[in-house]
Amino acid sequence: MTPAMIEVLIVVAAATGDATAARPSGVAVVVTRRTGLSPEEGLAIAETLSRRLASAGVLVAFGPREANARLGGHGISDTASCDGEPACALNVAVLLGTPLVVAVEIGALRKSAAIHVEVRESATGALVGEQDIVTGRGGAEPIVVPELPELGAKVRQRLESLASAKVAKKQPADAPVKQEVVVTGPTESAAVRRSAVSAAPGQRRATPATWVAGGVAVAAGGTAIAFAILAGSQRAPVALGATPDGRPFVPVTEDRARQLAADANGSYTASAVATGACAVASGLAAWLYLSSGPGAP
């Protein structure tokens, strides 16, 4: 099976929903190239590498044998067909669902063996770490694989970093902090308490400018009412009366009536101006309140 065929299987698995649903948090160890060795010998070496990583504190989600068994359900019988191509190893990791993939390339010739270990992020292809191992091969004796403390530390740290980023994504943003000043007594100093208080969704708070505009609106409204009452009282003396025989008459002199009418008209004009000022101030207060935004101080 070629790397291109493995890529096709990735597309088919994604389209049919056969890709791994639950994403393991560890690494997958797979053999991506094998030269001069039988499949069983390659798996044995990769299994030893897997144990070395585990002893260095790395969480191994899939060892090479388990990875092959899982991938067999997708029609991939041997990951060594990737022929060492990183893109193919990443595609295999997508099928397994692990955040990191450990690609193992093994080559043996006579009494020597070379192992190349490469660890990459499945999502980005970023190289986490790599190590080359050259060891002897003595007849029926298995190839010796040394401990991998440095590579294991790099892989462990990257797994922890990815896990932290995943948790941070799920957590809500920190609640806004509200500062309150509380005076506990006439002789005691004010103590500042800080408490995390989230503003209610959509809540708005009036700004000082809003309060000033509202106060002006109330004052203008009160002034308008006062002038309207005054105008009514000024007009009262010039209202037409009637004699007992039904004839209309004005109870004040003509000059006095003219003066009272002028005063009443002036009061009505002042009342109208105050009413307009009240409307303008009310509109300004409403605009300031709505434009202050939720949670404004």
Summarize it.
By secondary structure, the chain is an alpha/beta fold. The protein is 47% helix and 20% strand.
Notable features of this structure?
two-stranded antiparallel ribbon; 7 helices; 297 residues; Rossmann fold; alpha/beta; five-stranded mixed β-sheet; 2 domains; single chain
Main β sheet profile:
5 strands, mixed
Q: How large is the count of helical segments?
A: 7
**Percentage beta strand:** 15-25%
* Second-tier CATH architecture of the largest domain: 3-Layer(aba) Sandwich
Shape, principal axes of CA atoms? rod-shaped
Order of helices and strands: HEHEHHEEEHEEHEEH
The CATH homologous superfamily of the largest domain corresponds to: ABC-type transport auxiliary lipoprotein component
Description:
The chain has 297 residues and is of the alpha/beta class. It folds into two domains: 3-170, ABC-type transport auxiliary lipoprotein component (Rossmann fold, 3-Layer(aba) Sandwich); 208-291. The two termini are 66 Å apart. The protein is rod-shaped, with a radius of gyration of 43 Å. Strand 8 (241-242) and strand 9 (248-249) form a beta hairpin. It contains seven helices and nine strands; from the N terminus they run αβαβααβββαββαββα. The strands form three sheets. It has a five-stranded mixed β-sheet with strand order 2-1-3-4-5, sandwiched between helices. The protein has a two-stranded antiparallel sheet with strand order 6-7. A two-stranded antiparallel ribbon has the order 8-9. It has helices spanning 3-16, 39-55, 64-72, 86-96, 149-170, 208-235, 254-291; strands at 27-35, 60-62, 100-109, 112-121, 127-136, 177-182, 191-196, 241-242, 248-249.
